[in-house]
Amino acid sequence: MTTTVPSASQWGSPNAKKRALLVHGMNSSSHTFHRVASTLAAKGYLVIAPNLLGHASRMPGSDFRIQTLADDLLPYFEAAEYDIVIGHSMGGAVVLSLLKYLPKTRPISVVVVDCAVELTAEQQREKISSNIGDNMNRTVEDYMSLNPLWTREDAIWRVLGIQIGRATNPLDHMDDNVPWSWLHLISDKPATTTLTVLAADPRKVEAIAHSKDVRIVIVPNASHWIQYEFPEVVVEEALRSIEGQ
């Protein structure tokens, strides 16, 4: 039986024995991971980066819950087994929602990159504001000026991710996910899975600071876009728990 999977970008050889799944965030696309994906492919991984519902010209349904985005990715797990799963920002919440579906008998490295695990109502409103307005109209040159560690390719993919997505994504996803709270999902992590959370600001991980089964890594001098600025850190942390397996 053939399993149909949603649209995605792919790096590496289809014959690779190791696989990684990378999940982008809000108003972004699969190519937000182009640097991480290229590095993993060079290390022998087949890397798959899906485009979430409502992003990269994918039509959404009427349900914008994080769990719905996660369930939409289940065909990937039916079609193959993954050694590494990485999610950025909202994609991190999607990955946490996938923990309950991961195999319980094999090691998997899960990395969540700068995801807001818990937000108050006020913080949700602020996040909506930061994802609309000026952000929707910035040019490649604007992003390069604001983010000196970005390459031109990073800025191009950022602008393209916004333009081929839906302008109402921030409002839709925030309205359908109240409260914005994913801390409880950590308990779904299988014992054989390792969970690492990368953050630019220690305040973003305060809610999970005392979680026993989570490795927290603060990335100095990074912004929200750690995968652009320090892709080597994302790859290093992803490989840390599975090297030598």
List keywords for this structure.
AB_hydrolase_fold, Alpha/beta-hydrolase, alpha/beta, two-stranded antiparallel ribbon, hydrolase, globular, AB_hydrolase_1, 35% helix, 245 residues, hydrolase activity, Rossmann fold, 18% strand
Q: Summary?
A:
With 245 residues, the chain is of the alpha/beta class.
Report on the structure:
It is a single chain. By secondary structure, the chain is of the alpha/beta class. Helices cover 35% and strands 18% of the residues. It has helices at residues 34-42, 66-72, 74-79, 90-98, 121-130, 134-137, 140-146, 152-163, 169-175, 226-229, 231-240; strands spanning 8-11, 18-23, 45-50, 84-88, 108-113, 118-119, 180-181, 193-199, 214-218. The strands form 2 sheets. It has a 7-stranded mixed sheet with strand order 1-3-2-4-5-8-9. It has a two-stranded antiparallel sheet with strand order 6-7. β2 (18-23), α1 (34-42) and β3 (45-50) form a beta-alpha-beta unit. α1 (34-42) crosses α11. This is Alpha/beta-hydrolase. One of its GO terms (cellular component) is membrane. One of its GO terms (molecular function) is hydrolase activity.
